[in-house]
Amino acid sequence: MTGNTKGRSLELFFIDGNPDGMLTAEVFNWTGHVLMTPRTQISEALSRKEANYTGIYILIGENEGEPLAYIGEGEDISDRIRNHDTKKDWWTTAILITSTANNLNKAHVKYLEARMIEEARSVGKITLENGNTPTRPGLSEAAEANMEAFIEHILMVLPALRIDIFLKKTRPSTPVATQELKADQGQPIEFEMPTTKHGVYGTAKVEGGEFIVQAGSKARTEWVGAPSHSYAALFEELVKSNILIEDGDHRVFAENYAFRSPSAAGAVMKGRSTNGPKSWRVTGQGKTYREWEEEKLSKTTEGGS
């Protein structure tokens, strides 16, 4: 989505009042409907009217310790899951995606299934139990545009439900003037992390609330911190997805990659937990990210007083 995208309102309804139980998700002015349920409540979920609609579904779980997913479609989702997918022992969560008016047809959902499989495989965050990526069915130009708009909403809603298998964190290279935050003088700001002890060196930019480490940044070859640390799994995920590739005595970022925080980026760079706000510095100034952030906050406070 572009930076000009307007805000949207997402309505979540926790069916039994439990945030870990069944929930529905809808977006104002979108015809789609999302029902997410843990496997422990699948019988209740499949008894709901929308589970009998034509749509697509996503099963998520683990197999031998590795995350696994399956994407399917059906003219009656409940029937497909009851007769076929309950035989799969590995999944723990099901997401059913339909239209509130039940106006999706077989061609629509076969297109949605094919595109969602394409999206999941392009991100590469999770293994799919699906075989080959199905061929997209032929749709009219108008119908295809409608389905692409439908998918855009799905890809917005699912991350809000903590389903990130379609969430691409790599970012394209764009002109400096459009990508970086600007200093008061109108000059672009870039952060760097020089770590001479291990030859680690990275540059990063902030855009849209993300801390984006730039392609070519050098990280440690392997994770040397506590194996149980949450960022250890992130490090291994980036290695597995070929974002961090071996290059001599280091691993190099093959693409720009968006982190949620400078601490997450710093930990991956150094291969261990680190104080990211103090490790990253404004390029050419020596000012830490924390100091830069405090200056911004102080100016905001002054401007609002």
Structure commentary:
There is one protein chain. This protein has 305 residues and is an alpha+beta fold. The protein has two domains: 10-160, no CATH class; 176-304, no CATH class. 31% of the residues lie in helices and 27% in strands. The protein is built from nine helices and 16 strands. It has helices at residues 42-46, 77-83, 106-123, 141-160, 176-179, 230-240, 262-270, 276-279, 289-304; strands spanning 10-14, 23-27, 32-38, 55-63, 66-74, 91-99, 127-128, 170-171, 191-195, 200-207, 210-213, 218-219, 244-247, 250-253, 256-259, 281-282. The strands form three sheets. A seven-stranded mixed beta sheet has the order 1-2-3-6-4-5-7. Helix 3 crosses helix 4. The protein is elongated. The model is unreliable at 175-188 (pLDDT under 50).
Write the layout of secondary structure elements.
Blueprint: E1 10-14, E2 23-27, E3 32-38, H1 42-46, E4 55-63, E5 66-74, H2 77-83, E6 91-99, H3 106-123, E7 127-128, H4 141-160, E8 170-171, H5 176-179, E9 191-195, E10 200-207, E11 210-213, E12 218-219, H6 230-240, E13 244-247, E14 250-253, E15 256-259, H7 262-270, H8 276-279, E16 281-282, H9 289-304
Parallel strand pairs: 5-7
Antiparallel strand pairs: 1-2, 2-3, 3-6, 4-5, 4-6, 8-15, 9-10, 9-16, 10-11, 11-15, 12-14, 13-14
